[in-house]
């Protein structure tokens, strides 16, 4: 039954939401905490750049057909499904929550869990490393671009110059700096993952607490009912079920071997909480992003539980064979 229970990080996320609901950050404390959160996000993307090995990218990028399928699923199939949910009336899916689902659909894939599940299931791990990494790199460009195309930031249309400046300075610049220093510090960063994990997890928890604090002050829980949350959970499950079916059957029909099918399934069906929450805080700076990140937080736990079961089934089938 363990795999059905939330992991430690998900539990901490829930605690952050509860803390923000009971003791929301406000006034001067919220301003100072916001500055600290921005610095933590910059450090997070610096570490992402420093961790990514250039050799891994070169070795895996040769499998271009597999990567193309995964990237098209992540940045084309998902957004199209998100737009389809826009046909639902506001009485069923309130617009702020719909925008959260749409934002979820334009995010890059996860890195750690995609690789881990691919490994457990017996998939093509080097290709998974390359594809998941490429998804996150391209996501820094494609996610803001898709946000500007599919819905307006501030509901006025397009990405403003100030938002683009924040993306460049807070996300892209630290990442590029990390890549430039990767030959010297990359091995140390990768070998000290346990020491640096608090930066990854801590920055996300800070953003979630700050986001929900602002949302609570503005009346988030008075705006959305338990029925609204249940609708979001149902749509998240429907979204994941469709993409898992698409990647499993589609990769088989396209003639990929079993290890590549597994890689496409796990890398193509994931959405990154680690990249999504910081991106939301930058792209939607100055706005209430509690409703924006809520569908992503729910999707995160759903995808972990479902993919854990699928990975175990793949593993059992491989052992039986």
UniProtKB/TrEMBL annotation:
Sorted keywords for this record are: Membrane, Plasmid, Transmembrane, Transmembrane helix
Supply the InterPro entries for this chain: Na+/solute_symporter_sf, Put_Na-Bile_cotransptr
Output the superkingdom of the source species: Bacteria
Protein name (Swiss-Prot/TrEMBL): Sodium-Bile acid symporter
What is the native source organism of this protein?
Answer: Sinorhizobium sojae CCBAU 05684
Where would you find the membrane-spanning parts of this chain? 69-88, 100-125, 137-155, 167-186, 198-217, 229-248, 279-299
A GO cellular component annotated for this chain's UniProt record is:
plasma membrane
């Amino acid at each position: 039954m363990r795999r059905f229970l939330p992991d430690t990080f998900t539990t901490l996320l829930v605690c952050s939401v509860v803390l923000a609901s009971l003791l929301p950050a406000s006034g001067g404390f919220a301003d100072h905490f916001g500055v600290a959160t921005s610095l933590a996000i910059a450090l997070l993307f610096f570490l992402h750049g420093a961790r990514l090995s250039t050799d891994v990218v070169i070795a895996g990028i040769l499998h271009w057909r597999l990567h193309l399928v995964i990237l098209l699923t992540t940045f084309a199939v998902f957004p199209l499904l998100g737009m389809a949910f826009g046909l639902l009336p506001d009485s069923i899916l309130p617009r702020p929550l719909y925008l959260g689902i749409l934002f979820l659909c334009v995010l890059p894939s996860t890195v750690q869990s995609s690789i881990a599940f691919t490994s457990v299931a017996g998939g093509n791990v080097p290709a998974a490393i390359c594809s998941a990494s490429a998804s996150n790199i391209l996501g820094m460009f494609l996610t803001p671009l898709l946000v500007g195309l599919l819905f307006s930031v501030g509901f006025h249309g397009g990405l403003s110059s100030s938002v683009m400046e924040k993306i460049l300075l807070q996300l892209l610049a630290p990442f590029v700096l990390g890549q430039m220093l990767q030959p010297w510090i990359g091995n140390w960063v990768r070998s000290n993952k346990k020491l640096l994990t608090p930066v990854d997890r801590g920055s996300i928890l800070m953003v979630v607490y700050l986001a929900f604090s602002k949302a609570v002050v503005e009346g988030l829980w008075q705006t959305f009912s338990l029925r609204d949350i249940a609708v979001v959970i149902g749509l998240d499950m429907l979204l994941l079920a469709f993409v898992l079916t698409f990647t499993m059957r589609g990769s088989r029909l396209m003639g990929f071997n079993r290890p590549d099918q597994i890689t496409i399934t796990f890398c193509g069906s994931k959405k990154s909480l680690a990249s999504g929450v910081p991106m939301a805080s930058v792209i939607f700076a100055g706005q209430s992003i509690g409703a924006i990140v809520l569908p992503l937080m729910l999707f995160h736990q759903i995808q972990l539980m479902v993919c854990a079961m699928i990975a175990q089934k793949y593993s059992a089938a491989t052992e039986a064979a």
